[in-house]
UniProtKB/TrEMBL annotation, chain A:
Signal peptide: none
Matching Gene3D superfamilies: CheC-like
Lineage: Bacteria, Bacillati, Actinomycetota, Actinomycetes, Micromonosporales
Alphabetical list of Pfam families matching this protein: CheX (PF13690)
Name listed for the protein in its UniProt record: Chemotaxis protein CheX
Keywords on record: Chemotaxis
Domain Chemotaxis phosphatase CheX-like span(s) in chain numbering: 46-128
């Protein structure tokens, strides 16, 4: 059984800020600028699923260019040197880091999956029977990036699926 | 000195490798706990340090720590968990299993170096 839990935009924003400070913008010159636009486009996404005391998903979505720049920052290389493997690996790790920190805010007994990376827009992979409960939406170096949290409505599984 | 970096994410291995190389360690990489144990079995000299992720396929970090602690040949290795598992109960489990230190992702390079310095693993004159 899953319990209701509140991880709000501020909590997510704080985690995202730590990720930027640690890996994507250690100099503090290129932060993620909030847009608050839930419908901003994405071209690639990664996710981790949480099960147990809470069930849902953490999704990191962005443009290919933002993913390439993230991989370049992570791997200390030039953006044009980034391979598809680099891109997938870094996207997965970003979802894993945010997901792991979200899990720490959940009731004990939550489990984190290994990350999944899909080189397609987030909109192609909305998890069934979930609702968005929180998200950080922004522009990084002119490119869209979002981190959102989706709660599985497990208690509704027996309903008509509407 | 030699360090083993164990993480299923190549990106994270590269970040950790960069840090320990800066500290004058020779770095060896493994993608999971089992691969790390296999590499250790073939090494004539045991690395002084292992930086270990928790969630990995095949063998997770906690199982790796338990295996290392059960092997007298590997007793001298300093084990540092580097993971997103940040609940108090998980930290206690890892330390009880034999990890010496615990670093939560995301971490800055400075924070990692500080942690290794506390363990006496930052050589004098290293570029920290």
């Amino acid at each position: 059984m899953s319990v209701e839990v509140e991880v709000n935009e501020n909590d997510l924003a704080e985690m995202v800020e730590q990720v930027w400070e640690s890996y994507l913008d250690p100099e503090g010159i290129n932060p993620l600028i909030p847009t608050y636009d839930e419908n901003q486009p994405s071209e690639v996404h990664s996710s981790v699923s949480i099960s147990g005391s809470w069930t849902g998903h953490i999704v990191y979505a962005c443009s290919i260019e933002a993913a390439r720049r993230a991989a370049a920052a992570f791997l200390a290389m030039e953006p044009d040197e980034v391979s598809q493997e680099d891109l997938s690996d870094v996207l997965g790790e970003l979802a894993n880091i945010v997901g792991g920190n979200v899990k720490a805010m959940l009731p004990p007994g939550a489990f984190l999956s290994l990350p999944q990376v899909v080189l397609a827009p987030e909109s192609t992979a909305r998890f069934p029977n979930t609702e968005r409960i929180s998200g950080v939406y922004g522009i990084w170096d002119g490119e869209p990036v979002s981190i959102s949290m989706w709660h599985s409505r497990a208690d509704n599984n027996q309903e008509d699926g509407a | 000195m030699r360090a083993m970096v164990i993480d299923d994410s190549r990106a994270m291995r590269m970040i950790l490798k960069r840090i320990v190389t800066k500290l004058n360690f020779d770095a060896v990489e493994a993608g999971d706990g089992q691969e790390a144990l296999d590499l250790l079995a073939d090494m004539p000299e045991v690395p002084e340090l292992a930086l270990i992720d928790w969630n990995m396929p095949n063998m997770n970090g906690l199982e790796f720590v338990t295996n290392v602690r059960a092997d007298p040949r590997l007793r001298e290795m300093t084990l540092v968990m580097v993971t997103t598992e940040s609940e108090q109960s998980q930290i206690v489990r890892a330390l009880a299993a034999g990890a010496h230190e615990y670093v939560i992702k995301p971490f800055t390079e400075g924070a990692m170096i500080e942690k290794l310095a506390l363990l006496g693993l930052v050589p004098t004159g290293a570029n920290s």
